[in-house]
Design a protein that fits this description.
heterodimer; A: mainly alpha; ABC transporter involved in vitamin B12 uptake, BtuC; 14 helices; 4 strands; B: mainly alpha; 2 domains; two-stranded antiparallel sheet; two-stranded antiparallel ribbon
Chain lengths: ~325, ~350
């Protein structure tokens, strides 16, 4: 039994680690969608963050600089998106897709010089798991939450912060107004475009540091296409978490766990009705994607009002066409 | 004060000029960026043109990219016309290739005249089936097709990887994970040096043009795309039209997969697509869903792709430069739409005061 608890604790710890970049990206996406913009460029912004963050870590050996650079790279990508989708009223779906292609291209270009290089020791040390005494001895939860990198704690804090921001601050409520009904927000004196720019860029910042979690901490090496579709899972999880940052935490960790299941089961030979079953890793790799589809179906069945998307989502706001 | 006014009647001529101007500005902007990071932009562009057109071999490589792009874009266009955001061309391509490979590996004894059409049919059917899933989920359960098609891309890719590393692994390859190479009669023949897919693609362009513009189904698709309520009011069976159109959409993407497997790879592998399915979304959109324009745009994009991969060998610049260029060009074209749809008007302060009253 003890061995089981031990294994479960380890599994949960890994689940959190495999979900942290997804969490950050989902939070970034929520910021963006709350002001009424669908951004399918999350994957691209994550890759921008991952590659620029890695380069900055190599160049400066300074963990804070690396994370900041990653965030700014993501924000820069988001800024491009905002120029086209907000100011120039371009199609949001296409603009986002292009941002992903663009970000993938740039990260491939930068990453060309990064493969085989190792993250400096200073950076690795800064993000090594912090073992918090006493708390880490709580069964299962202890290892999961109190023996993690500061990066994990920061991402959790961000989730709470964004939750409070949208519920309990004036600017958060204004942002929601922009996402729900930009015309009304405009009439009440909110600068709609500015509000959109700020939130889209902040969202990009979070996606960038989400990507950097992979390249700086979790992997930590450079691989071409290091995010492997996590950005797309984040797009689905935004809906899954009903635009609620706290629910996003659970959603992201659940998906981290699903990925973890894939890893764990590779080595297990089970037998069912006397027949030996082996789990092909490629089939297990499908789990998160299939799970996302199932989740999407459930979301579509939901009718409750607070679970619906921001009303203005996907339509560009244009004062002259009001 | 500057006011922005919707243009009432943008002429197609002007629109196209604006788009060409946008591409030119994008290329100029990219040139500046290249110069900043230490490459001679003229050299880079010259190499790209050389690399995609200069020799018969390179031209063939360019055509080999144009053909699948055209067929994929035609498929995507059908769905987009209906405002069904099928971004699963990549997955549908893989499923189509899977169907074709299944036929090629199991019925390899048939003569080419029978085998190749059978492979094409299997590819079309499998690709259509893969697009049918999100269509059903959308029509019956209301699930967002954008995300479902996207997720199915990954599922399809993993499925091919599973076959390649598992049940379809070629025992003759000494443990190397690859699927067996096709027999000669499962490989598309060449006409004028390029595989026969170019003729198929051109025929499909004509067929799709007629289908979208001149038939009842095409009309129904267009109405459905404009407004589902209108379509219902007009007595169009929404789910029937959706399902047929989506079968065509996914089927064409699957057919592209068949051609890639048969003519290019002579086999099936998890590298078969090389991202063409995603590029095709952009070519479709840039071509405004018009079949003839798709041919032009796809060819230009193939120049970009082939030129990009030539840069890698000739100048040691990563081929991802092509992705970056694509991104910049489309950002500019997207931006230009704004100037096509709206125009700026200068109004004096006094006028504004009057307007406010």
């Amino acid at each position: 039994m003890n061995a089981f608890v031990e294994a479960l604790a380890l599994f949960m710890q890994t689940a959190v680690q495999m979900g942290t970049h997804i969490l950050l990206a989902t939070l970034g996406g929520i910021l963006c969608e709350k002001v009424g913009n669908i951004n399918l460029g999350i994957e691209g912004m994550m890759l921008l963050g991952a590659s620029v963050g890695f380069s900055a870590a190599l160049a400066t050996a300074n963990p804070a600089a690396a994370v900041l650079a990653a965030g700014l790279a993501g924000a820069a990508g988001a800024f491009l998106y905002a120029v086209v989708a907000v100011t120039l009223r371009g199609n949001q779906v296409v603009t986002g897709l292009v941002l992903t292609i663009f970000g993938t291209g740039v990260s491939g270009f930068i990453g060309n010089r990064l493969s085989g290089k190792a993250i400096p020791q200073e950076v690795l040390a800064a993000f090594a798991p912090v073992k918090i005494p006493v708390l880490r001895d709580i069964p299962v939860l202890g290892k999961m939450l109190f023996e993690q990198s500061l990066y994990v704690h920061a991402s959790l804090a961000l989730a709470v912060l964004i939750f409070v921001y949208f519920r309990h601050t004036y600017s958060g409520l204004n942002a929601r107004a922009v996402g729900e009904n930009p015309g009304a927000a405009d009439a009440s004196g909110i600068n709609v475009d500015l509000c959109k720019y700020v939130h889209i860029c902040l969202g990009g910042f979070l996606c960038g540091i989400g990507g950097a979690w992979l390249s700086l901490v979790f992997v930590p090496r450079w691989q071409e296409n290091i995010t492997a579709g996590a950005g797309w899972i984040a797009v689905a999880l935004i809906i899954f978490s009903t635009w609620n940052p706290v629910k996003a935490v659970f959603a992201a960790y659940t998906f981290g766990a699903l990925k973890g299941v894939g890893f764990k089961f590779q080595n297990i030979d089970a037998s069912l009705f006397g027949r030996k079953i082996t789990f092909a890793p490629q089939i297990l790799d499908m789990i998160p994607y299939v799970a996302t589809i199932i989740v999407l179906i459930f979301i579509a069945r939901r009718k409750k009002k607070e679970y619906q998307s921001p009303k203005g989502l996907g339509t560009p706001y244009f004062r002259e066409e009001r | 004060m500057i006011r922005i006014i919707t243009k009432t009647e943008p002429s197609p001529m002007r629109e196209n000029l604006m788009r060409i101007a946008a591409v030119a500005i994008a290329l100029a902007a990219s040139a500046v960026i290249m110069a900043l990071i230490g490459y001679n932009p003229f050299d880079v562009y010259a190499k790209m043109v050389q690399g995609s057109l200069a020799t018969a071999y390179r031209f063939r490589e360019t055509m080999n990219k144009t053909i699948p792009l055209v067929v994929l874009s035609l498929g995507i266009a059908v769905a987009f016309k209906m405002k069904f955001w099928n971004i699963g061309a990549e997955g549908q391509l893989y499923l189509g290739a899977f169907g074709a490979t299944f036929v090629a590996l199991n019925f390899g004894y048939l003569p080419a005249v029978l085998l190749l059409p059978l492979m094409f049919f299997a590819g079309f059917l499998c690709g259509g089936f893969w697009a049918f899933i999100p269509a059903v989920l959308k029509a019956r359960l209301g699930a967002s097709e954008t995300l479902v098609t996207l997720m199915l891309n990954y599922v399809a890719l993993k499925w091919i990887a599973y076959l390649q590393y598992g049940p379809w692994k070629d025992p003759a390859a000494n443990g190397f994970p690859k699927i067996a190479t096709f027999e000669k009669n499962a490989i598309l023949p060449s006409v004028f040096g390029v595989h026969i897919g170019w003729i198929v693609a051109l025929v499909l362009v004509v067929v799709m043009y007629i289908l979208l513009r001149k038939t009842k189904l095409g009309y129904e698709i267009a109405v459905l795309g404009e407004s589902e309520a209108t379509a219902r009011y007009a007595g169009i069976s929404v789910s029937r039209v959706t399902f047929i159109a989506i079968m065509i959409s996914g089927g064409l993407c699957g057919a592209a997969g068949m051609m890639q497997a048969s003519a290019i790879e002579h086999s099936l592998s998890e590298q078969l697509s090389g991202g063409l399915g995603n590029t095709a979304i952009i070519t479709t959109w840039l071509a405004r869903l018009s079949p003839p324009a798709i041919v032009v745009v796809s060819f230009l994009f193939s120049l970009l792709l082939q030129g990009g991969s030539f840069l890698q060998t000739s100048m040691k610049i990563p081929a991802t430069v092509a992705d970056i260029l694509q991104g910049i060009i489309i950002f500019f074209v997207l931006g230009s739409e704004f100037f096509i749809r709206y125009r700026f008007v200068w109004t004096s302060r006094k006028n504004k005061g009057e307007a406010a009253e």
